[in-house]
Amino acid sequence: EAGVAQSPRYKIIEKRQSVAFWCNPISGHATLYWYQQILGQGPKLLIQFQNNGVVDDSQLPKDRFSAERLKGVDSTLKIQPAKLEDSAVYLCASRRTGASGDNEQFFGPGTRLTVL
Amino acid sequence: AQSVSQHNHHVILSEAASLELGCNYSYGGTVNLFWYVQYPGQHLQLLLKYFSGDPLVKGIKGFEAEFIKSKFSFNLRKPSVQWSDTAEYFCAVFNDYKLSFGAGTTVTVRA
Asked: Most buried in the list A68, B62, B70, B104, measured by CB within 10 Å?
């Protein structure tokens, strides 16, 4: 099966600009996650969707970050305006639907964001 | 606060040496445990996972991990590493509907 797709792979912007990332999860995966991975750290969950509804966005900096999954498939994550500390790799992951007890997440290649 | 701790930031070893990476977590209750690997330039891939049953779990590429509930640990092992095992390794714990990662351990295997 095809994996989780993300684009772009790399993005360089100046601070105060806006940026958007796109994710296409594995077909049939109802749960979608966005993570932020700062250099030297493990991924940190930003937001979790179940179909097109938000399950957990407690760690999303909502003053500048937003995410949507309008049709329950693709998702976009936006940062507006970007700050220097937003430089990181943004990972998208998805999980199978209705797989009781199986909480394995499948990760995309990530988008490396550099804010200058 | 709940956390996942990986004991080593960077491990350097020679081919054929044995590898053990420590992972401890502080969550109570039922947990699912994972080790992910990230090879240079590639995305996170699952090495192995523990949900229930036999606490000794075997994964891909000769890796194994042992869940010790009393010690809140899930250490990763490989008896004989290869140069191709050079990568970053992440321990992760699924609890309360969230997956939390450790900071990662960079493993460098010298030929």
From this structure: B104
